[in-house]
Design brief:
Blueprint (H helix, E strand, L loop, with lengths): L1 H17 L2 H4 L9 E3 L6 E2 L10 E7 L6 H16 L3 E8 L4 H13 L4 E4 L8 H9 L4 E4 L10 E5 L1 H16 L2 E8 L5 H14 L3 E9 L4 H14 L5 E4 L2 H13 L9 E2 L2 H10 L5 E2 L5 H13 L4 E2 L1 E4 L6 H7 L16 H8 L3
Parallel strand pairs: 3-4, 3-5, 5-6, 6-7, 7-14, 8-9, 8-10, 11-12
Antiparallel strand pairs: 1-14, 2-13
Helix pairs in contact: 3-11, 4-5, 6-7, 8-9, 10-12
């Protein structure tokens, strides 16, 4: 009998040793390509935020009208919330890239006693204190599209910004044979996504003879970047490749080279329908890094899972491989505008209503 007890205890200890945090968390498909971080992760215990529906979910968006991608994140979030009838109300507040406004927005959501809050941070520190206050009030906080310095949040779903930048950087290193001069088009200065994507590029360039001869911020916007690229071209058109942090900026630069009737150098892109159309038509060398606006829908799913009482991991990563031209051709839609981003979870009806070519 003593031997049997010892065996049972030993078996229990072994099971506890080999059971990883990810094995203890519920299997929730937050988004295709999203996986639990392998190291330094912990589990948000089951039942901690369980509440009976109906639920009210709030979202603090860093800037809805920053560009076409951020607009679609709002669409994807709203659509995902509308699909779940247990969500009685979805409140989306737009910080408009104002740190103080984001703090006020989160405080407002706490005051309204929402059941969960999704945060897209303006900067790496702008929402820290408010997030801690929400969690202390028993409200789970889900963070995505920008890492923050506090770990007070409940769970995060982060597109690996360094991975994203490195996918693009590795493409240029390969195309240029490890040497040459490149332009670097960065996003919004100070935004954590911009900083970390750029760090991914630097990882790619380490040990090569590729030089960054100019570096400008286009804020992930077409109009601003078009002016930037026109100036860069007029100052020095001799460039071997272009690293662009976002597809709206890529489209702008491609249009500048076409405007001047000059061959388009290898340039990195992203999953945007307008960029896809350019790439297919003009046949320049490129790669499409994936950064789905459906991260907005993933935030809704994470909130719902926590309110259902499911166990989630604290950290989830989204590091999909880049797309080649053949995959791009499968997604491109001539009947939709340049402003739609892929992959999307919007229904065919929603895509045509929001992005259909009139």
């Amino acid at each position: 009998m003593r031997h049997l007890v010892k065996s049972l205890v030993a078996g229990a200890l072994l099971a506890a040793t080999i059971l990883t945090p990810s094995a203890m968390a519920d299997e929730v498909n937050l988004l295709d390509g999203v996986t639990a971080r392998a190291e330094g992760n912990s589990t948000v215990e089951a039942g901690k935020f369980k509440k009976d529906p109906p639920w009210v979910i709030g979202m603090s968006h860093f800037g809805v009208n920053a560009n076409t991608w951020t607009v679609q994140v709002a669409h994807e979030s709203k659509a995902a919330a509308a699909k779940d009838k247990r969500i009685s109300k979805f409140i989306l507040l737009d910080a408009g890239f104002d740190q103080k406004k984001q703090v006020a927005d989160i405080e407002d959501l706490i005051a309204q006693k929402v059941d969960a809050i999704i945060v897209q941070p303006v900067t790496s520190t702008s929402a820290d204190a408010s997030i801690a206050k929400a969690v202390a009030a028993g409200i789970p906080v889900i963070v995505h599209t920008g890492r923050i310095e506090t770990d007070a949040f409940t769970t995060e779903i982060q597109g690996g910004a360094e991975h994203f930048g490195k996918v693009m950087g590795d493409f240029l290193v390969k195309e240029l044979g490890g040497k040459g001069n490149i332009w670097v088009l960065r996003g919004l200065a100070g935004h954590p996504e911009d900083t970390n994507r750029y760090n991914g590029l630097l990882q790619s360039l380490k040990g090569t003879d590729i030089k960054i001869i100019v570096e400008e911020h286009g804020d992930w916007q077409y109009d601003k970047t078009k002016k930037v690229c026109e100036t860069l071209y007029l100052n020095n058109p001799q460039v071997d490749g272009i690293w662009s942090s976002g597809a709206d900026m890529t489209r702008a630069c491609v249009d500048v080279f076409k405007q001047f009737g000059t061959p388009i150098p290898p340039i990195s892109g992203e999953g945007n329908n307008g960029f896809f159309g350019q790439w297919i038509k003009d046949g320049f060398k490129s790669i499409s890094a994936e950064y789905s606006p459906s991260q907005g829908a993933a935030g809704i799913r994470a909130a719902v899972a926590l309110l259902e009482g499911k166990a989630l991991m604290k950290h989830y990563d989204y590091n999909p491989p880049g797309w080649d031209l053949e995959k791009v051709k499968k997604y491109y839609r001539e009947d939709l505008s340049a402003n739609v981003w892929w992959p999307s979870e919007l229904t065919e009806e929603q895509l045509k209503e929001l992005y259909g070519v009139k």
